[in-house]
Every structure is written in structure tokens, then in C-alpha cells.
Design goal:
The structure is a homodimer. Chain A is mainly α. In chain A, 74% of the residues lie in helices and 1% in strands. The first copy, chain A, is built from 16 helices and two strands. In chain A, strand 1 (88-89) and strand 2 (92-93) form a beta hairpin. The longest helix of chain A has 28 residues, at 189-216. The interface between A and B is large, with 38 and 38 residues. Chains A, B: Its cofactor is Mg(2+).
């Protein structure tokens, strides 16, 4: 077993060394551009850690699957940014802003195909199983993005529907990445499923934490604007529970906040309502539930504890204490 | 060997029976919609005929690959129609017009993943080879679409570049479909390559013919508006050769035609220039060259002539006499 940072270095090098054609430039320049906006590369790392968990020896052979997951993630960012009309991504211009929507549509498509090219470069006997997991995951991510957009025009969103949305939009990719690693390491179906559940539940907990940190996070290390979700009226887990519990009088206040021009006042009043209806505790509890489920799934995988250290470490880094 | 129409019926039934989820509706309704706008289904038929050529017996097992190709084609239509701002497709509203651009982007993405799901349903031992061919083809189609868009803002396009564009944008899909059939039927690498060349060259000839028919076709059976390419200043093979040969005086006339408001006059003057510079004959010759290359490749495949009858029949149906 190598250290996590060695794997991360491997991944960074593999992405840097990946060769994309130069022609046509409008198809491949945006791909090089988005892959160059270095993110945390958590997802490809999960592929490698998923294989490492089972003491897989041929770690070099996990690189194509790791790249496939990273390419897929970046494809989804390019297309989601068009749909969300986002001007910035990782502090830089989004592809559709830097070039055009057409360029973003088509280079996104090409990057999705590039992800499948990496699947095709995996160990041939593993390709059918990898392809199946990758496809299911990819389709669920599309479903999650559509549900997320549907919620924008929906008055009330149920907790279950919200969880189903974040599961599909962001968490299955973490579970799928880990499962692909497990497949490469010849893990059996039950082990694969447990590792998948670890990733999916950890992903849900992480997203719930993101909703909480948006309101209660430390501005210095949150990495995004605190209160950003409130300002754009995003239906987070806090907002969803507030809407379910709010009294008639406060409901009017809440409705009026949509057109509140003073950002500070909007955030402050929303936080007061969150406090009054004690929604933070509900969200924290839900986050703990999913994080518990994640750790429970991992604990059931029959490998030595030391093999699990890297994954537990990663999970703990993702899960900061918010209270 | 079954007849071509039996295969076509198989394909139509398989598409009708394909189950797509109902939720989220905005993701899957557009997929059902575009697949329901019945096209000619030539591409999935080519997968089956590619296997049939080698007397493959388990024709039922070719259906997933045939569906993959048809899904891919429809994915590319959804996204191309956004990029080309096309209001109509097969006489019906395009997906982005009927729903929205966001819906068209995302349902297109999902349909591309669905195509890969069909690849995953193919005979497992064949999946690595099929995936490789499918990926190469998919990427070239993206490249072709980008080149086509690039040409719109380019003054002069060389014949070679134009051929490379139509090869990538439309012809490799025909070649790839046939090759996938050949892979399923255990054809060797040389046979696969010859069949691929047959499809690609036939596709180029077909596209050149389409350029010619736009100007000289019989309005009653062309299926599109005669002169449509001229009216939207499309860089067809005729236009490209005209621009290369036109004298200084006629070049001014040609430039002014871009802003000619009278459609009849625009078509008439363009046709006069085509006649003066004899570009039709050049285009016809080029079409014949590619069609000859196609037939030559097919003739080299070492199977009995009767096995080739269905493919020759299809090719002859595609290649009408234009002079």
C-alpha cells in the first residue's frame, strides 16, 4: 500500500500527460482548459483507494478507470455550468463564458466520450463490469441534475426527494468510483456493494454538511461565499425543513425574503428563522445518520483495519466537525 | 440470411419495446420523443447487415449494438439541432424548441449514456472491441460537427478539408456501424477494415450526392427544399469548387448574393454560376470516385457474392442516379 499522496501525484501526472488532439482547437482546447483548473481530484483517488483497500498490487492498471471518472466529472461540470448559467468555476471563467455555449456543449460531449475511451483502456476482462457501473452512475448523475433543476420551480420539496436528488447528482459518482476500484481488485459482489454504500452515504453526508457550512461555516476556510445558498434561494436541507415547519406569519416573511435587496438582511433574517425552527439540529442529525451509515458499510468489509486507514483518513478530512 | 425488411422490422420493434424510466419526465420524455420521430433507421440496419454479411447466425445478439448506434445518432441530432438553432427535425419540433435548451443538453447526454448501456448489453467478450470502435466513431462525429461549425465563419474551404469534415461528421458512423456488425460476426481485422471503408466511402458519396441533389434534385422526391443549401449560404462541395474557380467579376456577384433578398433570384444566379464554372461535373466525378472506392472495398471482402446482395441493394437505394 502506497500513501494517499503518492496516488494523488500519480493522478495529477496522468492528467498532465494525457494527450488530446490539437485539431479542431475549439473541441479540444476547452477540455485541456477545464482539466487544467486543478480541482481536488477526489474522485479518481477514490478509484485507486477502492482498489488499494483490497491490497491490489497492479495499481498502475487503475489509472485509466481513475481518469474515466475524472473526465466524466469534468464533462458534467461543463454541461451543468451551461444549464446553471454559471460564470465561474474554480475561480476561472466557465467554458461556455470563455468560448460559447455551442463549444461547451460539444467539447463536453467529446470529454464524455474520452471518459469511455479510458474505460476501453482498462484490463479487457474487467471492461464489461466497469462499463455497467460507469453507465448506471452516469445516468443517475443526469437524473440528479434534472431533478435539481426541477426543484427550482417547485414550491415544496420533500426531504426524501432532496436526498434522492443529491444522492444521484453527486454521491453515486463517489460510490461508483470506489466500486470501480473494487472491481479492478477482484472484490466480490458483496464487498463491491458495501464499498459503494460507503461512498454514496459519505457523499450524501458531505453534501448535507455543505448545506450547513453555507450558513454556519467559517468564512476563512469554507472556500465559498457564506450565505451564498440563501442569497440565491437555493433549496438546501435547511430551507426544506424550514418550509415544512414554518408558521403562517413567518411563511409570509420567508416569501418576502425572495425579493429582499439587502444581502446582509436576507441572510440575517433567514438565519433567525432557521434558529427559531431549530432546523440546524435536524440537518446535523441527518448528516450524522448518513455518515454513520457510511462507516457502518466500511466496517463490514472483511479486510484488515490497516487497509481501511487511507479511506477513513479521506472520509475524516471530508467530514469536518460543524458543531 | 433474412431479408433486409425483416431486420428493419426487428429494429423498429426493439426501439418500440425499449423501456425508459418515466422519472424525471424532462429527462426521458425527449428521448422517447426523438426516437419516436421515425427516421429511416439505416444505421442500426447497417450493424445487422454487417453481421449478416459473414453469415452470422445469432442475429438476435446484434440488436443491442444496433440500438447503440441508433441512440448515438439521435443523441447527436438533439445536440446538433441546439447548435444549429434548427426549429424542425423530421418535420416535427426539435427537442430544444419543444422543451428548452437545458432539457435538450441533458436528455442528449442521457441518450448518449443509454447508447453505452446498449454496448454493455452486447456479448461480453465482444464489448472491448465494440467499445473501441464506438468511441473512435463518436469522437470523430464530434470533431466533424466542430469542423462544420468552423467552416461557417471561414471564407475559403479546401476540398480536402470538406471531405474530412463530412467523413467525420456523417460517414464514420456508417462505417462504424458496419464494423460493429463484423466484430459481432467474428470477422477478422482485414475484413472489418474493408467493411468500414465500404461504409465510410459510401457515406461520403451519399453526402456529396445530397449536395448535388439540393440544386439539381427532383423536388418531388428529394424530401427537402431544393435550393435550401444555396439560400442559407452553406459551403457545399459545389460552392467550394465555385469559390476556387470563380473569376474576379463573378466573385463580386457571388459575394453580393449573400444579401440577395429574392430567394428565386438567389437560387437562379447561383445555378448560372455553377453552370458557367462547370462545378456540377466536378462534384459528380468526386461522388463517383467515392462510390467506386466503396464498391471496391466491398468486392475485396472474401465472402460469397450472394452474401453481399443486401448491402449492395442498400447502397444502390442510397445512390440514386443524378445525371
Amino acid at each position: 500500500m502506497l500513501t494517499q499522496s503518492t496516488y494523488s501525484t500519480h493522478i495529477t501526472e496522468a492528467i498532465e500527460q494525457a494527450q488530446f488532439p490539437t485539431d479542431p482547437p475549439k473541441l479540444y482546447d476547452p477540455i485541456r482548459y477545464i482539466l487544467g483548473l486543478s480541482g481536488k481530484r477526489v474522485r479518481p483517488l477514490l478509484v485507486m483507494l477502492g482498489a488499494d483497500l483490497f491490497a491490489f498490487e497492479d495499481m498502475e492498471s487503475t489509472i485509466p478507470a481513475a481518469l474515466a471518472v475524472e473526465y466524466f466529472h469534468n464533462f458534467s461540470l461543463i454541461h451543468d455550468d451551461i444549464m446553471d448559467e454559471a460564470p465561474l468555476r474554480r475561480g476561472a471563467m466557465t467554458v461556455h463564458k470563455k468560448w460559447s455555449e455551442n463549444v461547451a456543449i460539444l467539447s463536453g460531449d467529446a470529454l464524455l466520450v474520452k471518459a469511455y475511451e479510458e474505460i476501453a483502456r482498462c484490463t479487457p476482462t474487467k471492461i464489461p463490469a466497469l462499463l455497467k457501473v460507469f453507465n448506471r452512475m452516469a445516468l443517475e448523475v443526469c437524473e440528479g441534475q434534472q431533478k435539481d433543476m426541477d426543484f427550482e420551480t417547485q414550491d415544496l420539496v420533500a426531504e426524501d426527494d432532496y436526498i434522492a436528488m443529491i444522492r444521484a447528482k453527486t454521491s453515486v459518482l463517489l460510490g461508483g468510483a470506489l466500486q470501480m476500484g473494487a472491481i479492478l481488485a477482484d472484490a466480490n459482489a458483496e464487498e463491491q456493494e458495501l464499498l459503494y454504500q460507503f461512498g454514496v452515504n459519505l457523499g450524501i453526508a458531505f453534501q448535507l454538511q455543505d448545506d450547513i457550512l453555507d450558513v454556519y461555516g467559517n468564512p476563512e476556510n469554507f472556500g465559498k461565499q457564506v450565505g451564498g445558498d440563501i442569497l440565491c434561494d437555493k433549496k438546501t436541507i435547511l430551507r426544506i425543513h424550514l418550509q415544512q415547519r414554518v408558521g403562517a406569519q413567518d411563511a409570509v416573511i420567508l416569501d418576502n425574503l425572495v425579493s429582499e435587496p439587502d444581502a446582509e438582511a436576507k441572510i440575517q433574517t433567514t438565519k433567525e428563522l432557521y434558529a427559531k425552527y431549530e432546523v440546524r439540529a435536524i440537518a446535523e442529525k441527518l448528516k450524522e445518520d448518513y455518515s454513520d451509515r457510511a462507516y457502518e458499510a466500511l466496517s463490514k468489509i472483511p479486510v484488515a483495519d490497516q487497509q481501511k486507514a487511507a479511506l477513513l483518513d479521506l472520509a475524516q478530512n471530508l467530514m469536518v466537525r460543524t458543531h
